[in-house]
Amino acid sequence: MKKFFTTISNIWKIEDLRVRIINTLLFLLIYRVGSFIRLPGVSDAVASKGKAEGLVGLLNMFAGGSFSRVSIFALGVMPYISASIVMQLLGIAVPYFAKMQKEGESGRNKINQWTRYLTILITALQAAAYLRSQVTPDEMLIANPLFVVMNTFVLTAGTLFVMWLGEKITDKGIGNGISLIIMVGIIAQLPGAFVAEFQNRTTGSGGLITFIVELVALLGVVMFTILIVQGTRKIAVQYAKRIVGNKQYGGVRQYIPLKVNAAGVMPIIFAQALMFIPATLASFFPTAASNSVLILLQDYTSWLHNLIFAILIIVFTYFYTAITVNAKQMAEDMKKNNGFIPGIKPGDATNNYIDDVISKITLPGSIFLAIIAIIPALANLVGVNTLFARFFGGTSLIILVGVVLDTLQQIESHLLMRHYDGLMKTGRLTGRTSIPAVTGTTPTAI
Questions:
Q1: Within 10 Å of residue 6's Cβ, how many Cβ atoms?
Q2: What is residue 288's predicted lDDT score, i.e. its pLDDT?
Q3: Is residue 443, in this structure, part of any structural domain at all?
Q4: Is residue 437 part of a domain?
């Protein structure tokens, strides 16, 4: 405990780190205050109807409750994430965008600009669908056409402002701005979910023992998630020994840490964004809302939804790993620095070996990620409160674990850079070694 307070004191002594933490907290406070500001022209009755269920409930969790409150930040950063997904897909399929990705900093700036333009378009479409599904004509204090047009602009501006806050947290704060905004929205739902489940068990079925068992199960899922997030496969790399004068250069053995889940939370985010499509279609085409397949796809506890969701996660895990971990570039960099994997020839053989290792560790990583993603549905089926069940896995838990570990890593890097002790006894966060720089698309979302 003494070491903990000493570390907190050291964090506060570093002026740059202190300013970044304060900036981050202030930006997050602005976001939370804005999430309680209701759209203009909406009656007081609309916020008490509790219409955030199913997949819509998940979106409400990512938005920190803004969705159900009909807030100006109701759509959160999901349109921006969807735009990022589209741009990354275009980078694979369209040569113009693929070339742009290879242009370094200028190319990334162009892609970010395109992403912002696409965010505006997606937000406008989602805003219109949101207003149609969440606000009925009798809840509008303004005439219908004017209400929809005006609040489409307001929702679009709200999403762009949240996106700007995320970028400012990344630049002026401790980094991972968009991720932190989503994490804060998720954490804001935790106290209410905890209290609701406690009351449900103590006053209803199960009793206190069942509630304690649920907490133990939740702890086990969190530990399992941390193992998946931090798990790495180390590849030994030997560097050739050179003697210049009386000094020896190289001749040391190092390791390339390949993460079991190199894609992080992005596969679940990608899959979740696609799973929102049926709900969007149902809002634009009311006659199709009664279709049995659409109903199953919108029910996050249905077998069809979870099957498609798991398959999408596995596919996107391979896809995102392929575009973020470039085995060929790693092999070339290794060869340029006179490095080699023991028993493997430099060049194409090294490339094939690394690619084979990545493929082998990505399969179990993607399956475990899919299991974590569907645990909330299983928890809900066995009687856990819907809101509390969402913390048993899925996007919310992966985001919480990943963002907390990344934020701790950011803080630890500041401490170690100024010769202070890290947050852990070992001086570094175990398993948080990042993969060496590779060419390809830089993640713009989370």
A1: 12
A2: 59
A3: no
A4: no
Q: Is residue 20 part of a domain?
A: yes
Contact 402, 183 (CB under 8 A): no
pLDDT of residue 436: 34
Give the integer Cα–Cα distance in Å for 37 and 35: 6
Are the CB atoms for 247 and 423 separated by under 8 Å?
no
Question: Is 441 within the bounds of a domain?
Answer: no
The range of the structural domain enclosing residue 374 comes to 2-417
319: left (phi over 0), alpha (psi -120 to 50) or beta: alpha
**CA separation for the pair 270, 313 (Å, rounded):** 8
Ramachandran region of residue 282, left (φ > 0), alpha (ψ -120 to 50) or beta?
Answer: alpha
């997949």: which residue's tokens? 55
> Is this prediction's pTM over 0.85?
no
Q: Which two tokens stand for residue 359?
A: 């493929």
Weakly modelled stretches of the chain, pLDDT under 50: 51, 426-427, 430-446
Measure the CA–CA gap between 423 and 413, rounded to whole angstroms.
10
Number of domains observed in the structure of the chain: 1
